[in-house]
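Appendix B, record 7
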Amino acid sequence: MPQPPTIPAALILVPLLFFFFFTGPVFAWRPWPNQTLNKTESIFGGSKKYEGSSDLIQLKYHMGPILTNNITIYPIWYGSWKNSQKRIIREFLSSISAVDSKPPSVAGWWKTVQLYTDQTGANISRHVHIGAEKNDRLYSHGKSLTRLSVQSVIKSAVTSTTRPLPINPKSGVYLLLTSEEVYVQDFCNNVCGFHYFTFPSIVGYTLPYAWVGNSAKLCPGVCAYPFAAPAYIPGLKAVKSPNSDVGVDGMISVIAHEIAEVSTNPLVNAWYAGEDPVFPVEIADLCEGIYGTGGGGSYTGQMFNGEDGATYNMNGIRRRFLVQWVWNHLVNYCTGPNALDQ
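Structure tokens (predicted):
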């Protein structure tokens, strides 16, 4: 039998590079206030930042899959993490399905995400739980990661010879969390996290994933606002974080942002606004920096101040968190469990 023609490596590499660089990861642009207009503002203008109704936004379903089965999150702890930091993040993730938490709650916040459906009418799953975890304490791919090497870290986690993470392409989310010593491509340049899916050519599977970094050392004023003040706004004071860890408390809202979007748009062909899937504007992008009623522009909205002076807007199982709102496509504005008008 004649052998199939050999395709030159360059011809394989070119489309892969084109696909990657022109349809790259979907970014979480955080926090408010921004120095410049972000991609969402450039499309829809400043009015979309207000939590009130807007006719300018046309969030559409593009017929791709969403996460309707019970969602399992697989944390990958890359770098040096304290147990206390892991506990904060784990409790937030566990709080998503903790319907008995004191209101306003993280579970109440997730109810808005649950409103999104696929072509069969099935909703985003109410059940989100933590699956197997992987530790990469020795920085196996170095302390400076590119977007492609992020996928290589995930590959190492799912192909490890000792306790590899399960392969779960239909309802798994692989959450790569990098410690404060690690720089990821574009980190701190208004990018604090992103989500996408892995390439079979790198990982061997198509798996929805998200990356979020701890900004405590590199750029807390960019990615941990309002728990750290941006250097470009003189006189702005930071507020006290609810769990006494500025970097991790700042990560929580970015993690929430990415999980909400990867659930509603895991393969970047489901729920987003705009006509260009290369630059999708997703349900959390539309509400960046809005944490309470009246939020918009450079105002975060009304939040709570605890007796200890900490700022938060919702409760977890035992802890308190500050989490941005997400877009409710049924009423056409940003909603959250701490809204004063509900």
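Remarks on this record: The radius of gyration is 20 Å. The first strand starts at residue 26 and ends at 29.
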